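Holo model, beta-D-ribofuranose. Inputs:
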Amino acid sequence: MMSLVVDCDPGCDDAIAILLALRHANVKAITTVSGNVPVAQSTENALMTVAVANVETPVYAGASKPLKGPQISNDVSHGSDGLGGINRISHCRTSESVSACDFLVDCVSEDDWVVALGPLTNLAEALKRDSDWGKRIGGISIMGGSTSIGNITPVAEFNTFADPHAAAKVYASGAILKMCGLNLTHQLRVTDKTLALVSELGTTNSTFVATLLEFLLTRAEKLVGSRCAPLHDPCAVLAVTHPTLFTFEECSVEIETHGTLTIGMTVIDQRTTRPRLMPNALVATHIDATKALEVIVDSLETQ
Ligand code: BDR
Ligand code: CA
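Output:
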């Protein structure tokens, strides 16, 4: 099994991604960041998710604000608690005393991949402490950006927009990178059929996920008029645990950090005329969504 660290801002789809990672990888730790919700809340949501899963995975709290600029949140997408107002279960878990940045620099090795599901602030802080950090680890699988349209602005995706300076640092780090942007994650959509399959399982994890899916589907119905929602963050987990489900293209990815209209945009060289800019990432362009959904649902069968 691959060894992973999940860096995240739960977030309904982050929580589903954590459960998926726990089933298909050795999850060494979870690190948390401000993004969908402030870091205190994303940490509490990560702790609650590992309590639901009944595992002892340590949680390290990370950055509370982006490298530069204002903190933006995403309670429209995930509710003010980040998990769609789910009934909270009580637990007595707490985060570790070491910071996410220190954990990443001191404890992540060439055998570990980092799956990054929120703004890239913790990873950028690790690179500030050790500029070679990205080259010392197995690689980084990112949910963020887009080869086409954005979601938080016409051209920017939320995670990249929430800390574009951090994203720029990560894409320039020399690390082995996989990018699952909106162009990819919008191919993996959940519907009421998925919800029914998950609910039927009747496990603790599936009951938890069914509540999150119901929130995502209800929100999609309000926003776009149909109960059909993309499941972003699990894609970045599958990109390392099940890479054969994907098609990747080697591309240059750079981050716009200045543009008035384009800040947070992933500028991806997809020109068909050569030469192109030197590639620095494997950009996911296609996912076998049927098989991917099967893997996600099946991951909830036990516990
Ligand atoms: C990303 O933003 C968050 O709302 C989701 O958790 C996902 O990581 C999608 O743009
Ligand atoms: Ca996320």
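The chain has a mean pLDDT of 97. The two ends are 19 Å apart (CA to CA).
Archived with the compound record.
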